[in-house]
Amino acid sequence: MPSEKHTRVSVRILVKAFPQHSDKYEETVCCAGVREDTGELIRLFPITYRRLPPEHQFNRYDRIEVTITKAGDARPESYRLDQATLRVIESGSKLDRASRVRLWLPFIAPSLTDLHEQRRVTKRSLGIVRPDPGSLKFLHRANNTEEREDAQSLQASLFDQPLKPLAPPEFAFVYKFASDGQPHEYSIQDWEVQAAYINYQHEYGSKERALTMLAQEYGENIPSDNPHFIMGTMKRRPHQFLLIGILRSQLDPQELAKQPPLF
């Protein structure tokens, strides 16, 4: 990527990871999206998401405008943003299904093994992989930590002022899957899965029922909707990919790729 400073860009958001504690920023959220001027997949940080005004708290596929500067780490996709300049310009609800898929089609790697090889050669640290059909298995594990609060406390803390540190999630939600026949297992870092668990618990009033509904959504519904995983590395672990987001569509991206865009 070219070197640039204080550049105003438009970005379509693809994923928002679960917040991480930060001594300097209270907490930070890392996001990934597609730059509309260059068509590149980029990483944006640090974002204190809960400090954003409600009208600028963005969701998947929303288009934002923000001022960015190339980050000083070895990952070519990483940019620091000026949070005060962030504005939501357009809701992702205005994108049709085909436009959403075409947004991330160019970044699909043939396999997770291939993505690792690209990282070794080009330092690529963001990419998308499709799990082998029929290979997905969703499970959860308790996070064993004395600092863990219950899900009700976690939910309440999302709206406290001043910000309280978010407790570690009660559960780690995991996908086991194959990519090009090779088995893998990753914890899901996407904020949406933790939010879904909390919402289910609030709706049904039961931890067990919430886990059942989550297993139905992530273990049955999502696997039937052409799931693709956004994989990204961390600065302190540049050789290790994490599952930072889940993309899904009733449209098959492979079939869509064969069709020319209408415009």
What is the topology?
Elements: E1 7-16, E2 20-22, E3 26-35, E4 41-47, E5 63-70, E6 78-90, H1 97-104, H2 112-122, E7 126-129, E8 137-142, H3 151-157, E9 171-179, E10 182-187, H4 191-204, H5 207-221, E11 228-234, E12 237-247, H6 253-257
Q: Could you explain the architecture of this structure?
A:
The chain has six helices and twelve strands. The strands form three sheets. The protein has a five-stranded mixed beta barrel with strand order 1-3-4-6-5. Strands 7-11-12 form a three-stranded antiparallel beta sheet, covered by helices on one side. The radius of gyration is 18 Å and the shape is globular. The chain has helices at 97-104, 112-122, 151-157, 191-204, 207-221, 253-257; strands at 7-16, 20-22, 26-35, 41-47, 63-70, 78-90, 126-129, 137-142, 171-179, 182-187, 228-234, 237-247. The chain is 23% helix and 36% strand. The model is unreliable at 146-160 (pLDDT under 50).
What's the helix count?
Answer: 6
- Quickly give the structural class: alpha+beta
> Which stretches are low in confidence, meaning pLDDT under 50 for 5 or more residues running?
146-160
Overall 3D shape: globular
Strand content: 35-45%
Helix content: 10-25%
Number of strands: 12
Oligomeric form:
single chain
Counting structural domains, the number is 2
Distance between the termini: 27 Å
Pick out its properties.
263 residues; 12 strands; alpha+beta; 2 domains; OB fold (Dihydrolipoamide Acetyltransferase, E2P); 6 helices
